Structure formats: structure tokens, C-alpha cells
Amino acid sequence: MITTTAPGKVYLFGEHAVVYNQPAMASAINKRIKIELEERSDKEILIHPNDLSFKEISFEYSEDGFKLKNKLKRSFPSLEYIKTAIDLIKREIRDNSGFEINITSELPPAGGLGSSAALTVSLIAALNKFYGLNFDKREIANKSYKIEKEVQGGASPCDTFTSAMGGITKVIPGETLTKKEKMDLPIVVGSTRQESSTSKLVKKVKKLKIENSEIIDPLIDDIGKITLKGEKALENRKLRKVGQLMDINQGILDALNVSNLKLSELIYSTRKVGAWGSKLTGAGGGGCMVALGDRKEEIKNAIKVRDGEVIADQITAKGVEVR
Ligand code: MEV
């Protein structure tokens, strides 16, 4: 049996602007998606998504691609990532051996924590080991990015890179992807318990930008400046400054109309109990927020009191892992 895990992530700065080639910074968090892969003696591919709300999905794979063997009553978004990942690898190596995959997730789906990236990275790492392909972490991140882009019709490399590498990462699309070594941060991640669609929100920002480019373009550029200033503040361990910049970033995300009432409640209530900074993370429209500050218990309590769910309270240096 091959076991792999990959972490989810939060954006410290830069979501949405990263779609327009501005720099972004993200951090892997201590909640992961696990894949267990076991070889079968036949050609069947069996998937047990567990917490992803389906009991079992089975396929037969041939040169023509997948043939679903059991009927699904409703759509299952993660399935597209799974199918595209298996298809990509199988086409590269032209193998049709069967296997079973067990998926366990600690991340809420559609919650802005990069669950689709963690699933894809974990699965590519498992297939990498199964077929002895010797991809390194960067190659796993690149393959996973290709899959996210294909399934979502557009994505930045930030989620897949951060999940594969772990730690705090800086991403300049099309240019550099860097892992920041030896950084720790006191964070709390809270969920609104509202699912949201990244592709819809990305389209919403695009429309706003087209209709008001003279106003929105400078705001997108400002987010890029916040990321660069935030990077310096992080390197100098000026965490209150990091918090201040997170708050400014949130103000602009609000102007881009991707925040909502529940997010605002969690963000303002965590600031009120002493968070140095607090903002939504990911696409917004629900999903999750991240607060920075050393008064973690007060911050967690503020999230719970407003009916939010505390999802994570630590970043992690560990990217994708294989056992
Ligand atoms: C979603 O997690 C972050 C966005 O910037 C989209 C992306 O980068 O692909 C909104």
C-alpha cells in the first residue's frame, strides 16, 4: 500500500490579483488530504472518496479513457481532478493496471483552502510512487497545476505549488515560485461553513475589472504591492506590520466584492479580540478566513461564537509526503 498526504493552504496576500500575474504569498496549513493506493489484480480503478460524500466509484480504463461502472446520482466535483490526474499519468506511461484509491480529507471542500490542489498533489505523488516515475516535488506541483488548469479552465500555480512544497511560499505567475525557509506564523483559520465556487468568483472579478478597469486595475496592482511589502515584513518578523497589510488586503478584496457578511463577521470579531490582521483566504464568497495573532484561544472563541468553525491553527513546513 502506498500512502501520500498533502496539505491545504491559506493565502496571506494576493488571491485574485495572482490571476492577473501579481505576486502572492501563501502558507501550507496543518490539515491534509490523504490518499491510500493499492494495486489490484484486474484492470479496475476503484475510488473510495469517504468524506467527500460518495461511497465508491469504479472505472475501467482503456486507450479511450475511463468507463464509469456505477451510476452517480449527482455530480462530484473532486472526481474531475481524480479522473484528469489518472488520465494524464496513464497516457504518459501507457499502462492500464488497476488499483484502489482511498481518500480521506481534513479540509472542507469548496472552502478556499486548496482542497482540490491537495487532492491532486497527493494523488499525483501516489501515482508517481506506484509507477516509479521519480518526479520531484516541483514536478509533482507542475503536473498538478496542469490538472487544476484543465479542470477549472484557469488557475494560478499558487495552490498546487504550496501544497507540494509546504511552508510559506511566494508565487509570481510565469516567473518564480519560491519556498521561504524557516518561517513560522501564529494563525487561526476559520470557516464560514458556506461553500463557494472559485470559478464563479474569478469571473465576477473579471467582469468588475472589465467594466471599471480605471478603478479596479490599480487596486489589483496595489494587492501586488501589499504582497511585496508583506514579504519584507515577514522576513523581518514584523508580524504586526504583516497583520496591518492583511487588513489592507482585505479592504481591497471587499472592494472587489468577494467578501460577504459571514466573512466580515468572523474577520471583524477576530480583530476585536486582538488579531494583528484578519482577512478572507482564497476566492471568498464564503469559505474561510485567516487571522494572525498570538491570542489564539480568544481568536478561536470569537470564530466559534459567531457560528464559524475553527479549521486549523498552525502552518506546516511539510509539503507532500509519501510513505
Ligand atoms: C483561489 O484559491 C485563489 C484565486 O486567486 C484563484 C487562483 O489563484 O486560481 C481566487
TrEMBL record:
InterPro entries: GHMP_kinase_C_dom (IPR013750), GHMP_kinase_C_sf (IPR036554), GHMP_kinase_N_dom (IPR006204), GHMP_knse_ATP-bd_CS (IPR006203), Mev_gal_kin (IPR006205), Mevalonate_kinase_arc (IPR022937), Ribosomal_Su5_D2-typ_SF (IPR020568), Ribsml_uS5_D2-typ_fold_subgr (IPR014721). Signal peptide: none annotated. ATP binds at residues 108-118. GO terms for cellular component: cytosol. SUPFAM superfamilies: GHMP Kinase, C-terminal domain, Ribosomal protein S5 domain 2-like. Its main location: cytoplasm. It is found in: Cytoplasm. Its cofactor is Mg(2+). GO terms for molecular function: ATP binding; magnesium ion binding; mevalonate kinase activity. Pathway: Isoprenoid biosynthesis; isopentenyl diphosphate biosynthesis via mevalonate pathway; isopentenyl diphosphate from (R)-mevalonate: step 1/3. GO terms for biological process: isopentenyl diphosphate biosynthetic process, mevalonate pathway. Residues 232-303 form the GHMP kinase C-terminal domain. Its EC number is 2.7.1.36. Residues 81-167 form the GHMP kinase N-terminal domain. The active site is at 159 (proton acceptor). It catalyses: (R)-mevalonate + ATP = (R)-5-phosphomevalonate + ADP + H(+). Keywords: ATP-binding, Cytoplasm, Isoprene biosynthesis, Kinase, Lipid biosynthesis, Lipid metabolism, Magnesium, Nucleotide-binding, Transferase. Pfam families: GHMP_kinases_C (PF08544), GHMP_kinases_N (PF00288). Catalyzes the phosphorylation of (R)-mevalonate (MVA) to (R)-mevalonate 5-phosphate (MVAP). Functions in the mevalonate (MVA) pathway leading to isopentenyl diphosphate (IPP), a key precursor for the biosynthesis of isoprenoid compounds such as archaeal membrane lipids. Homodimer. Belongs to the GHMP kinase family. Mevalonate kinase subfamily. This is Mevalonate kinase. It comes from Methanohalarchaeum thermophilum.
